[in-house]
Amino acid sequence: MTDPWVALEPGADPAERVRVLRRAHETFTRVGTVPRPVRSVVAESWRRSARAGVGPDGTASVELTDSDLGAYRAEHPLARVMPLFRELMGTFAADGEHLLAVCDAHGRLLWVEGHRATRRRADGMNFVPGARWSESAVGTNAPGTAVAVDRPVQVFATEHFIRRVQPWTCAAAPVHDPRTGRVLGAVDITGGNGLAHPHSLGFVQAVARAAEAQLALLAPPRTAPDTPLLSALGRDEAELVLDGRRVRLSRRHSEILVLLARHPEGLTGEGLLCALYADESVTPVTLRAELTRLRRLLGPGLLASRPYRLTAAVESDVTVVERRLAAGALTAAAEAYTGPLLPGSQAPAIVRLRERIAGGLRTALIAHRDPDLLADWAHAAWGEDDVAVWRALAAVRPTAPVRARLTALEGELTAPSGRIPGRTRGATYLQRPPG
């Protein structure tokens, strides 16, 4: 086969390939080996599915319904290109007895449209809006695998991991945010074995590219071109993008800018001194010297005094996370959170802010019970020892690796200190859960 991403090479007999793949699937589910002629992309997906604890007789779960689904779809970036998807794919889906489906970046189906009888059949396997079709939930499938590997993919019949999905064939392509490059979700065409053709894969890829072009035209600039941008999450020394140049800040200058960006009204010298220094013996002269050096670094005009304040609005990644979390956009907030705020800082105000941001986000993640968001946090450097998150993850995704990690962490909780050894520097919470 010349293209490993296409399910059937020209001239292949679909019925024979179904039989061969079914035997291969049975071999894999029985002994864990993948025989030929299973494509590498499918073999790797089967292995990921098995590691995630997906069973071949499982089914998709519906996570969003009614008003919750409607609210989530209305706020999702792909809602803006649904008219384009319908224009390009709607007639093809209806006439060919196929389905047009769109999922988010976690494989959750947002829209499923197309031929009425085909939709009724698909209802039987929960291929419906609001259901999670990520690889980690239902195994190998085109929309879930396209999101997982971040490229267009075709899944033919018995290549699907779950048996009840094996009568279907689908092709999907990821859709990216044209400004950041992050995956927003995927567009999918699902139907019969006739879709196992190079044209269907090329078709969904072209539709995805058209959607990205449309999003680039529709999306307004996030900030004005001359707005200073401050990045302070997940790094000990913040970076400021100012007038097209990148300025690397010292830790103390990073702390000062984070605080002033959050207080556009300004801070007095005494207020800034208390916010920055736990040691009461530090004199105002020390602070003034730091501010003088910072003013020289930033250039004229940005840092004013009496009170100390920034003369232009500064957009920071800290405020982005807070704004998204306050709006209930949990997935977007988690994506913007790249780590604890200035993790090495001991400035009292920074420590409090760091704890509030991380604590608020992890509390929301635990309450929301989204397995993918919990897994992202648990496997990050700042969450690898977070017992509460691992417990929440084990409750919604009780795979063997997750249970093993949780068992190890709970065993370490018996340590006399009450904290897990080797806690990530800058973590913002006690590892022993309350109670």
Walkthrough of the structure:
With 435 residues, this protein is an alpha+beta fold. It folds into three domains: 14-218, Beta-Lactamase; 229-316, Winged helix-like DNA-binding domain superfamily/Winged helix DNA-binding domain (Arc Repressor Mutant, subunit A), CATH 1.10.10; 319-412. The protein is built from 17 helices and eleven strands. It has helices at 14-31, 40-51, 66-75, 82-95, 116-123, 135-138, 142-149, 198-218, 251-262, 269-276, 284-298, 317-326, 330-336, 348-368, 371-378, 387-396, 400-412; strands spanning 99-104, 109-114, 153-156, 169-176, 183-191, 229-231, 239-242, 245-248, 303-304, 309-310, 315-316. The strands form three sheets. It has a five-stranded antiparallel beta sheet with strand order 2-1-5-4-3, with helices on both faces. A four-stranded mixed beta sheet has the order 8-7-6-11. Strand 7 and strand 8 form a beta hairpin. The N and C termini lie far apart (59 Å). 40% of the residues are buried. Keywords: DNA-binding, Transcription, Transcription regulation.
Helix/strand order, N-terminal first: HHHHEEHHHEEEHEEEHHHEEEHHHHHH
Helix content: 40-55%
For CATH, the homologous superfamily of the largest domain is named as GAF domain
| Average pLDDT, all residues | 87
CATH topology (level 3) name of the largest domain: Beta-Lactamase
**Beta-strand content bin:** 5-15%
Spatial extent as radius of gyration: 26 Å
Shape: elongated
Distance between the termini: 59 Å
Tally of strands:
11
Write down the CATH class of the largest domain: Alpha Beta
> Can you name the CATH architecture of the largest domain?
2-Layer Sandwich
Contiguous low-pLDDT stretches (5 residues minimum) are 418-435
